[in-house]
Amino acid sequence: ETHGITFRIQIKVKELLDTDVLLKLLFHLPVSYPSTLPDISVNSDQLTRAQCMDVKDKLLEQAKKHLSEPMIHDLILWIQEHLKYVIKQSATVCNEKTILSKGPSTEDGIWVLLLHLDHMRAKAKYVKTVEKWASDLRLTGRLMFMGKIILILLQGDRSNIKEYLILQKTSKVDVDSSGKKCKEKMISVLCETKVQSQRKRFEMFEVKEYSTLEELQKEFETAGLTTLFSEFVLPLLK
After folding, report:
1. Angstrom distance (rounded) from CA 132 to CA 138
2. The pTM is what?
């Protein structure tokens, strides 16, 4: 494919107390790999979201050392050997990181992501999952319902926006017509762009339902995203 390939690897690693940690690693290799770093997503039921993010950061640091050469096998061997140290270090600096994360956003500034979903069959579970991801990744915004239209509007750091997209596209968030868990295949990225001004950023992530188009439009206007509404939301109604 022109967008490269994506694959998932699951490995068991012995942690500090000799407990098995199941790591779910997702690698997206762009067509320019290995000259370009892979996108990496890390999930584990035994680790907190913050610890998963630390593991991901450490893997990317290692990946930079192998730029221009095949690296996935080396990265897997490295994390198998060093996971317990990464987790230990993560716990040590946890409080410091929490304080820092409340400060101004770093180099990339604030980005906006607008997604359009075709439907939600398992609505309650789906909504809960989106809320958790937004909270874990410190993203603000709205999950918006108006009639048959379902939109997800997110604001936050560029790296966290990318992490959310990976989760959204690779996790089983809904059920199919037979009730079986499935990945989201009918999602459209309407817009992904940097915000010019941070004055009107949403303070939190909320799930809201709107009974009229005017209510939905006002939500975008309040956030200073009128152009976004005109260019990407209005065409969905035609």
Report:
1. 10
2. 0.55
Structure tokens at 134: 């937004």
Give residues with Cβ within 8 angstroms of 228, minimum separation 6. Answer: 112, 114, 191, 220
| Phi, psi (deg, nearest 5) at residue 80 | -65, -35
Q: For 160-174, how does the pLDDT look when each residue is reduced to its tens digit (9 = 90+)?
A: 888 888 888 887 776
Beta-bridge partners for 36:
none
CA-based end-to-end distance of the chain: 32
State pLDDT tens for residues 71-115. 999 999 999 888 888 877 665 544 444 434 444 444 457 888 999
Domains identified in the chain and CATH numbers: 5-91 (3.10.110.10), 111-236 (3.30.70.100)
